[in-house]
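Journal club side-thread
Mid-discussion, someone asked how the predicted structure for our own chain would compare to the paper's figures. Pasting it here so we can look after the session.
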Amino acid sequence: MNDNPYLRHAFRRAALRTVVNAGIVFFALAPIAWGVLSSLKPTNQILEVPPRFIPQDVTLEHYERVIGDKGLLFLGNSALISAITIVCALAIGSIAAYAIARYEFPGRKVLMVFTIGVMSIPIASLLIPTFTLLSVVGLINTHVGLILLYTAYQLPIVIWMLYGYFLSLPVEVEHAARIDGYTALGTLRRVVLPLSKPALVAAALFVLVFAWNDFVVAVTMTSSESVRTFPVAVYFYLGFYGREWGPLLAAAVISIIPIILIFIVLQRYFISGLTGGGVKG
């Protein structure tokens, strides 16, 4: 190796960085890999001692059990509710964020502080009042009720993310659109939103992760199988007298696959959307 002290120091730093990164990746992926491989094991091999990482006998019985227990219905409910929640949250949040970012009005800064403050409120503390509200309007145990709640819960973070990104966009482009005859909403729809695709994707992924994975709100606001979401269905494999580890692991794997695939496809926009709002303002 070259005796140059600078090169030796750089090599040590690179080696240390590689070891640290490898350790982080291992601790992040090892539980997922263990869960995926264990979901392919027969029931009697899942908790065997000593544990076996690679399945001796591969079976799909646990996945067949999940699908047979109306798993596709529950996945469909989660997908429908998540998709509509994303559309509603982005539609309302983009208009609100654009108004706060581009228009001067009394209480503008207070409104943003309030929006950020609302994000710190635990959702569990809102369950009783929201349950009462939905009961009064007849939306308990409905898809619409969950969509409205999820949209309301996620609006603050959508507004906050889009507000920062809108501030980073050049105002001159919007002025040119207004000169061309576009209204404020037209400018937002035809100019600002196309330029804000990374921020929209990042906000959409935040909303998706919440709506797809939520358990507390869904189990409180729903009771029938026709509205039940997948996380609530997974809970029933815990049981009162024991845990059904096979179906539980299979259901967990089924639940995380869509999120992972979507993130892999959109990660470039996600990272750009998170960092783009820091350019200005």
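Post-session note: The chain has one domain: 61-276.
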